[in-house]
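Quick illustration for those who missed Monday's session on complexes.
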Amino acid sequence: MEVLTGRTRAATTITALLILFSVYAPAASAQTFAKGADVSWITQMEASGYRWQNDNGQQQDLLQILKDHGMNTIRLRVWVNPSGGWNGVNDVVAKAVRAKNAGFRIMIDFHYSDSWADPGQQTKPAAWRTHTFEQLMADVYQHTFNTMNTLATNGIFPEWVQVGNETNNGMLWEDGRASANMRNYAWLVNSGYDAVKAVSPNSKVIVHVSNAYDNALFRWNFDGLRANGARWDIIGMSLYPEPGNWQTLNSQALANMNDMRSRYGKGVMIVEVGMSWDQATASKAFLQDIIARTRNAGGLGVLYWEPQTYNWQGYSKGAWNTNGRPTIALDAFIEGSTPPPGGSVTLQENLTGFCGVDGTLDSNHAGFTGTGFANTSNALNTTVRWRVNAAAAANYTFQWRFANGSTGNRPGNLRINGTTGANVTLQATGAWTTWTNSGSFTAALRAGANDIALVASTSGGLANIDSMTVTGTGVSVSACN
Ligand code: GCU
Ligand code: CA
Ligand code: CA
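Prediction with calcium ion bound:
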């Protein structure tokens, strides 16, 4: 296709742009969760003869396969003057038009380099190498403006625009190295921000840092930007865990997302994830979990980085098999279609998910299961606590096995994530050795980890609690806080 270039047409397209705004400007805020992929390599791979097959082994357009796996967003990187032209403005516009025509939302990712920009390299474009800092700010503005303008001329107003890629330590080294000159980094961010908004006021500007689990890094970077007057709309994060540590890193990433939202009042988004293609089972579990946790944290989306790679340039963290079909990891983006393992869990006092009792763990009355039972100290508001993970926000049922050798009922309340819900009556069973199941109580859980408690609602305290069973799709035990 023919691509109009912003550099040559900028002057003549201003008027056209004013008209385009009213026609093509995206809705101020799209509410749906973004799920998608950076597929910047797609055109270069196709030119090298790469094709993709769907789950059934039929060749199909890559974008269609991604859409059929629940994706709605395409991310594309921009290099300033790349050798070969890949990821230069013409290539980016061609891919963006193709993605838009296929119904995708668009994210544009400015690297401000002729090649890769990441935590280890933020190399100036060759054409800018000798420029003063003032010129570099103008360079960032012009390159951003021209690229955005060319996209606009082709009908593309991206929903999100990244100013910089993995700028853990700033951009355009040495001038914009954050650890040496935080002010310069902030001012370069603002140059990009202003250029984005000048062309596309509704686009959300993302500043992107890697290692989503590293709260200290994020605080250092964004505290520095804030202190130097930087403007941005969304905090973007990368996350590339291993099969053995994704649970830990995901929960740290969740804590970091919550901290970023409350500390800066900005949206958060996981703009890059990946795991080795040949660890597809672990990768799928990781992706399902980070999607659920990001939703849970009020995050805006999760994007996979170059999932379509197979035998390509040595990159091993795609989600494609060597036979040209997606791995099962990609199914994680089809939420709800594959019920995660579970259905019912019974939490015992000696196992993960039992989080404590205001009282003692006893075993002095026979008939219990597991290693004993929870005995509250017989005071108002004493609790027994558990933590479970729900695959999705939904209703789940709760039941307790208990014994109550006293003559009266022992009432309590079910408390979920700090909110008091159903009354749970534990009636007299006749003896402390006579155990029975309570009725079933239905309550809503949120996606991700939930804190569950039984709370004594009289000074008599609860009965002795042997175990709790939670039933519902995709329920699992969760480590306690
Ligand atoms: C007895 C019984 C305890 C029980 C307690 C109660 O002390 O041995 O297991 O918890 O009564 O009244 O709650
Ligand atoms: Ca007791
Ligand atoms: Ca027990």
